[in-house]
TrEMBL record:
Gene: nrdR
Domain of life per record: Bacteria
Listed GO biological process terms: negative regulation of DNA-templated transcription
Renumbered zinc finger spans (unnamed): 3-34
HAMAP family per record: NrdR (MF_00440)
TM region positions: none
Identification of the protein by name: Transcriptional repressor NrdR
The protein's required cofactors: Zn(2+)
Cross-referenced InterPro entries: ATP-cone_dom, NrdR-like_N, RNR_NrdR-like
GO molecular function: ATP binding; DNA binding; zinc ion binding
Protein source organism: Occultella aeris
Lineage of origin: Bacteria, Bacillati, Actinomycetota, Actinomycetes, Micrococcales
Cofactor note: Binds 1 zinc ion.
UniProt function note: Negatively regulates transcription of bacterial ribonucleotide reductase nrd genes and operons by binding to NrdR-boxes.
Amino acid sequence: MHCPFCRHSDSRVVDSRTAEDGSAIRRRRQCPNCGRRFTTIETTSLNVMKRSGAVEPFSRDKIISGVRKACQGRPVSDDDLALLAQQVEETIRSNGVAEIDAHEVGLTILGPLRELDEVAYLRFASVYQAFSSLEDFEAAIAALRVDRPDQSEESLP
């Protein structure tokens, strides 16, 4: 790390703390040459490779806007969408990769979205799993029913 004051090529870390939501580290540094102190913020970069081959930084806002379309008319709040985007980012970052395919991001959204709202999940899954027939929808609905507790059993004495 170069000193921003004298451009010396080395510095000593005086203090380190996590910043923001734990995705960044704030370091207080001191230059051994001029003795001045400065702060750096270190974050890991996460890039998304699009189908076109273009690479862009990961964005929670893009997750939210994409999922918002699937949730249109559903009882899903902005806070729910923000939490979903955070869960997706944490899942992707836990894989330890610096670059992920955009399609993989879409598939990662499916789990948390299924927990949030089943109708929105089906809407979103129809795009990211490339549903091409009515049978694809029927299979997805059948899978949702298998994982759901049977309500008729709950009403028995």
